[in-house]
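A quick aside before the break. I want you to see a complete sequence-to-structure record at least once, exactly as it would be stored in a machine-readable document. Don't worry about memorizing anything.
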Amino acid sequence: MAGKPRDALVISQDERRTLEGWARRRKTAQGLSTRARIVLECA
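That is the input. The structure line, written in C-alpha cells, reads:
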C-alpha cells in the first residue's frame, strides 16, 4: 500500500502474552483469534 510508512506497534509483555493466549486457545471466538494474530504480526 502506498503512502506514509506506519510507526512500529509497541506492546508490553503482558499484552503480548494475552494476545498469544487468545490466538492459541481453541475456545476463543475465531474473529478475536484472528485479530490477535494480526496484532502480533504487526508488533
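Two observations worth writing down. The chain is about 60% helix and 0% strand. The radius of gyration is 12 Å. We'll return to this after the break.
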